[in-house]
């Protein structure tokens, strides 16, 4: 097996464990804590919107059958066992594929880190301040571990959100349960055997991706609890012969930069680099969708006027949002559409928009949109800035020979083109009001933004549906 290009000077797990054990909330800059609360607000709004969808209710029926408990579910009145509530909340946050993304790590970290911190802190009777600090610890770890692989997990069929999220959640749960650094290191070794997340859902629009972050929370809590009681796991969880990167990346492990796992811990805050999604679809589609919408705004033409469309995308995302071509050009369900460059581009060109409404069954069957989607071909973008930015460009050629081009080199929401806190509130209100009244949405908003001033249990209860 090839050796990694950059090997660590010391094992990674103990370094991350020490960080998780020692970080004091006061050492986290105020602006980082503030941004973290807005990331949580975004997640809570999406979770409420998800309660309107069939996948949420089928998931709740399933986990409810496993047993009842006293842990809260966001936007719903059900009470579940801790791990089942974490699973359910992860499904709600991630279920619409509208949740935040860390570009370099290619990971939806909040979808696993927040449900885990919420559930464990509430059950343990801790404060909202302790919940927030643990969430930030998990975010800093997950984003860095994802960055090590340089996008490689997607090439080998693994979803970093579920896979990497497990290790972050083990540290969140362990910190909140008071584990020491040695136990936290062991928890990461145990997490290696329970971390998972397959990209096979891309083949047919299956629902399994929705459960990945919640399952990362379940697995992380399990790993931390086993470590608390002295269960022994391997020490080289990440860089070992069969550690995370070698076992899941194969030959691509030689591209890993292990230094990124611990670089800047406690000094440089990756929470500030997390991108809020402006569109409810895979982040890889956003620049092309925005480019298509820009062309529709700037030029007048009919769908039938289009001869062909070329979408330029990063080579690293082809397997995710462009192939298999036939599936992407005619998505069978909303999840197919959320991972389809042809559909995202066609929706932008024909409708001038791409929101939750464009993922409804009737919208997916619209003849004009499908006709244009069938004309969309992809090409690898030679000027891509991936993974720093998820660049994209659309070139439309009409039957009369005219050609229109638009490029989004820096995707909306990226760290260098951020969505502001006020814009996050707007997105939150739009999503939350799909499920609750504006008054109730504002009440939840104020609660989230004050979470560090209340008990975690009261905060958790405030997010659930009111009787």
From TrEMBL:
Residues 16-250 form the MmgE/PrpD N-terminal domain. Residues 280-452 form the MmgE/PrpD C-terminal domain. InterPro entries: MmgE/PrpD_sf, MmgE/PrpD_sf_1, MmgE/PrpD_sf_2, MmgE_PrpD, MmgE_PrpD_C, MmgE_PrpD_N. Gene3D superfamilies: 2-methylcitrate dehydratase PrpD. Belongs to the PrpD family. This is MmgE/PrpD family protein.
């Amino acid at each position: 097996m090839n050796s990694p290009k950059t090997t660590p000077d010391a094992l990674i797990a103990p370094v991350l464990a020490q960080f998780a054990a020692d970080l004091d909330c006061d050492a986290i800059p105020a602006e980082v804590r503030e941004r973290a609360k807005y990331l949580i607000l975004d997640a809570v709004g999406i979770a409420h919107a998800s309660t309107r969808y069939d996948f949420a209710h089928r998931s709740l029926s399933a986990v409810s059958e496993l047993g009842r408990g006293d842990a809260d579910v966001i936007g719903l009145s059900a009470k579940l066992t801790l791990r089942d509530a974490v699973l359910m909340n992860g499904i709600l946050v991630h279920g619409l594929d509208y949740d935040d993304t860390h570009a370099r790590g290619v990971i939806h970290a909040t979808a696993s880190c927040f449900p885990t911190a919420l559930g464990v802190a509430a059950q343990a009777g801790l404060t909202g301040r302790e919940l927030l600090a643990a969430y930030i610890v998990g975010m800093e770890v997950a984003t860095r571990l994802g960055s090590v692989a340089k996008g490689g997990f997607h090439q080998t069929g693994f979803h970093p959100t579920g896979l990497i999220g497990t290790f972050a959640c083990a540290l969140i749960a362990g910190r909140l349960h008071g584990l020491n650094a040695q136990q936290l290191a062991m928890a990461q070794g145990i997490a290696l055997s329970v971390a998972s997340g397959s990209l096979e859902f891309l083949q047919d629009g299956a629902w399994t991706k929705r459960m990945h972050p919640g399952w990362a929370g379940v697995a992380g809590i399990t790993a931390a609890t086993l470590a608390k009681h002295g269960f022994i796991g391997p020490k080289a969880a990440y860089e070992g012969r069969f550690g995370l990167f070698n076992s899941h990346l194969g030959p691509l492990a030689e591209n890993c930069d292990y230094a990124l796992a611990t670089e800047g811990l406690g000094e440089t805050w990756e929470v500030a680099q997390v991108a809020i999604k402006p569109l409810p679809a895979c982040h890889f589609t956003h620049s092309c969708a925005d480019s298509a919408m820009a062309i529709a705004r700037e030029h007048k033409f009919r769908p039938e006027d289009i001869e062909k469309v070329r979408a330029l995308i990063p080579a690293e995302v082809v397997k995710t949002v462009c192939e298999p071509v036939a599936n992407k050009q005619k998505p069978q369900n909303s999840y197919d559409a959320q991972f389809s460059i042809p559909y995202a581009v066609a929706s932008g060109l024909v409708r001038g928009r791409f929101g939750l409404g464009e993922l409804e069954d009737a919208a997916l069957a619209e003849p004009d949109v499908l006709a244009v989607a069938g004309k969309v071909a992809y090409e690898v973008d030679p000027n891509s800035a991936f993974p720093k930015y998820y660049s994209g460009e659309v070139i439309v050629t009409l039957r009369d020979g005219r050609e229109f081009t638009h490029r989004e080199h820096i995707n909306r929401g990226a760290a260098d083109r951020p969505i502001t806190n006020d814009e996050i509130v707007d997105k939150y209100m739009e999503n939350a009001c799909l499920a609750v009244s504006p008054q109730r949405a504002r009440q939840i908003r104020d609660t989230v933004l004050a979470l560090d001033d209340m008990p975690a249990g009261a905060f958790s209860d405030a997010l659930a549906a009111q009787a």
